[in-house]
DNA sequence: TCCTCTTACACTTTTGAACAGC
DNA sequence: AGCTGTTCAAAAGTGTAAGAGG
């Protein structure tokens, strides 16, 4: 089956795949997808902005915690026929550690050593552009943890640090060979601080009001403070006075209410407040204010399309699937140990946001810079407030972070394109998981420090992880008062005050540039046939150094003696290991020879694949482990159709290993 | 003593298996 | 036999509060 849509197929087939570096220009206009036409909107942007205005906090736990609000995006501009992989990663915004003091977050020191980067692979991946564009894409299954020894593959973060999620869109073919079509997006309003317990009561209130799982903690919920007090009192008094503690006695509740604590009253007050000022959206061009929280039924047409798309995927998966050990292929499990069988359907939840109109003067991101306005759907825009200290460009002082020797699949470096050297190409050693202190030739930040979404670039001139003492104590990289598209090195980024008529869905970190994607088949997909100098000049930042490796079942990879990863221009990179769940265990492709010296040290058993239930794929029944009989197709189909079965998503660690 | 983190808890939502009916 | 809809228990996802640990 073709790797390209039929209309482009001939061009693609015209030459051996290993010579497709970069891929041939589409022969027909219909094939052409403008790189910069890919757009991403944050669907629940208004919710994010509410949190952002207060200072978003994300709980991280050892067992992993989901993010709330969840990242829900809408994609457009993709080639409907091409397959794409969507990834989520989270990178530090700065090199500071924070503490919540006096109702504000303050920098209290330098960041802890950077943790291994991990990437959440959207469970629908790979899927066609049509698939991605036909629905909202939610990363709600991604989990954050503070467990540095986490084996589930969750995204590991430090507590009390500030992070920025990123979404990456990659053409699946890029996984196999050099080509264009990588897109990375950040939404500044999705920055958050990690905590193990909420620090800001306003965030707690907002979470409780917004998150369905926390419904019980709402004023009218069974787990509200009032109710908990009632329960506690009943517990204490039960042996003595049962009658007065009747939970059904409304007078009891009222009396409890009247004597509620100040914080309780505050909660009530908060809940009764008018809505949060409608956050400025239109001016920023942050897409529509649409809040598609409600799940909408998939039209039949769409289902048919899905079927076609998934068939396409399945067939192509067979094409690109590398050998996966049977135990992996058949035993894919999600992080919870459940079998991954289904593509994730978007299961939006209806967010009933309670009015929230309090102004939080000391909020990190300059909440007061949001003009009050009706919530939440009205258009709004970011407005700079002169009274709010804005980060001075010079106040953002980013110590260098490891990069060149830090083998991330997505270059964890939040830096932006380099005009010098592709970090991928710089990687000369594989130091995972130890941070390398090498600061050599780290790409310079693309964006000026005035960009509100500036992410800590690494500056070779500065010390690594040195204590950060910004002059701007609160959130050093606040949105600047002026937000204009920033063009540099051919990459356009946007800032907050993009003219209203300018569609600004996300901050594209990189596009239009040859990806530093590094997923190669040792022989079939050698490193792009580009002169290194060219690469250096054109390679964007180390945004995406994706390295996905072949399972060792493909023989020749001596797992025990895997040498350092040396992604030099001549390096051979193992092929991407993708498989479809309904595919039988694969065998080593004939054209795959291995070059052990190019393989990173991966434990073969950790190499996995991600899959999805694919009703359109050739049906190879999943085997019931108990009965050894195939699980009825109808069951799988129904689960898919009803969205009852959801893969938990997959994760990759920094070396590109998929973690299940 | 303070700060941070962990854990148990009670609640809500989600998931998926079983079942009945067509 | 296959499909649809309902029910229900288990699992998973929430914030809270108490307590541990540095």
TrEMBL record:
Biased composition (Low complexity): 376-387, 584-596
Hydrolase as UniProt keyword: no
Coiled-coil regions listed: none
Protein name: T-box domain-containing protein
GO BP: cell fate specification; morphogenesis of embryonic epithelium; positive regulation of DNA-templated transcription; somitogenesis
Main location: nucleus
Record has Transcription as a keyword: yes
Domain T-box, residue spans: 42-219
SMART domains named in the record: TBOX
Record's keyword terms, sorted: Developmental protein, DNA-binding, Nucleus, Transcription, Transcription regulation
Composition-biased stretches (Polar residues): 460-471, 568-583
Species, as recorded: Coregonus suidteri
InterPro entries: p53-like_TF_DNA-bd_sf, T-box_DNA-bd, T-box_sf, TF_T-box, TF_T-box_CS
Gene3D superfamilies recorded: Transcription factor, T-box
Compartment annotation: Nucleus
PANTHER family recorded: T-BOX PROTEIN-RELATED, T-BOX TRANSCRIPTION FACTOR TBX6
GO terms under cellular component: chromatin; nucleus
Segments of this protein annotated with the region Disordered: 363-400, 452-471, 568-607, 640-660
GO molecular function (one): RNA polymerase II cis-regulatory region sequence-specific DNA binding
């Amino acid at each position: 089956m073709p790797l390209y849509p039929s209309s482009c197929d001939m061009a693609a087939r015209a030459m051996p795949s290993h010579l497709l570096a970069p891929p041939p220009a589409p022969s027909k206009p219909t094939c052409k997808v403008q790189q910069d036409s890919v757009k991403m909107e944050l669907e629940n942007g208004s919710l994010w902005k509410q949190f952002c205005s207060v200072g978003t906090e994300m709980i991280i736990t050892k067992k992993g915690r989901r993010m709330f609000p969840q990242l829900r995006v809408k994609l457009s501009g993709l080639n409907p026929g091409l397959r794409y992989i969507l990834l989520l990663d989270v990178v530090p915004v700065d090199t500071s550690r924070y503490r919540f003091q006096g109702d504000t977050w303050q920098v209290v020191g330098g960041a802890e050593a950077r943790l291994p980067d991990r990437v959440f692979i959207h469970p629908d991946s790979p899927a066609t552009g049509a698939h991605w564009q036909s629905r909202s894409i939610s990363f709600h299954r991604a989990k954050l943890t503070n467990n540095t020894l986490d084996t589930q593959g969750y995204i590991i973060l430090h507590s009390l640090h500030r992070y920025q999620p990123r979404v990456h869109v990659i053409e699946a073919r890029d996984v196999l060979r050099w080509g264009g079509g990588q897109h990375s997006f950040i939404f500044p309003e999705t920055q958050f601080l990690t905590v193990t317990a909420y620090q800001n009561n306003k965030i707690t209130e907002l979470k409780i009001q917004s998150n369905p799982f926390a419904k019980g903690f709402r004023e009218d919920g069974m787990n509200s403070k009032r109710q908990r007090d009632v329960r506690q009192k009943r517990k204490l008094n039960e042996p003595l006075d049962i009658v007065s503690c009747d939970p059904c006695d409304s007078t009891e509740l009222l009396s409890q209410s009247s004597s509620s604590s100040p914080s309780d009253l505050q909660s009530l007050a908060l809940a009764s407040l008018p809505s949060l000022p409608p956050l400025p959206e239109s001016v920023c061009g942050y897409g529509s204010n649409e809040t598609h929280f409600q799940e909408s039924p998939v039209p039949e047409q769409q289902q048919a399309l899905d079927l076609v798309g998934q068939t396409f995927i399945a067939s192509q998966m067979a094409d690109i699937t590398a050998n996966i050990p049977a135990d992996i292929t058949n035993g894919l499990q999600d992080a919870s140990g459940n079998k991954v069988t289904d593509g994730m359907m978007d299961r939006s939840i209806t967010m009933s946001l309670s009015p929230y109109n309090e102004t939080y003067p000391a909020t990190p991101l300059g909440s007061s810079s949001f003009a009050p306005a009706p919530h939440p759907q009205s258009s709004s825009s970011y407005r700079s407030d002169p009274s709010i200290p804005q980060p001075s460009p010079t106040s953002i002082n980013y110590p260098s972070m490891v990069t060149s020797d830090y083998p991330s699949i997505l270059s964890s470096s939040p830096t932006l394109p380099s005009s010098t050297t592709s970090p991928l190409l710089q990687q000369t050693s594989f130091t995972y998981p130890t941070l390398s202190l090498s600061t050599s030739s780290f790409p310079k930040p693309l964006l000026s420090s005035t960009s509100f979404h500036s992410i800590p670039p690494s500056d070779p001139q500065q010390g690594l992880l040195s204590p950060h003492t910004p002059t701007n104590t609160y959130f050093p990289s606040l949105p600047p008062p002026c937000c204009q598209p920033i063009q540099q090195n051919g990459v356009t980024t946007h800032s907050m005050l993009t003219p209203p008529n300018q569609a600004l869905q996300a901050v594209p970190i990189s596009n239009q540039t040859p990806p530093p994607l590094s997923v190669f088949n040792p022989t079939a997909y050698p490193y792009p046939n580009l002169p290194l100098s060219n690469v250096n000049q054109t390679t964007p930042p180390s945004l995406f150094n994706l390295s996905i490796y072949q399972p060792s079942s493909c023989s020749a990879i001596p797992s025990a003696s895997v040498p350092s990863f040396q992604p030099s221009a001549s390096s051979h990179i193992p092929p991407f290991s993708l498989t479809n769940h309904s595919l039988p265990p694969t065998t080593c492709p004939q054209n795959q020879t291995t070059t052990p010296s190019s393989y990173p040290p991966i434990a073969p058993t950790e190499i996995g694949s991600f899959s999805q239930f694919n009703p359109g794929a050739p049906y190879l029944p999943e085997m019931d482990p108990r009965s050894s009989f195939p699980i009825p197709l109808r069951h799988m189909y129904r689960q898919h159709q009803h969205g009852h079965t959801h893969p938990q998503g997959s994760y990759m660690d920094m070396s590109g290993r998929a973690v299940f």
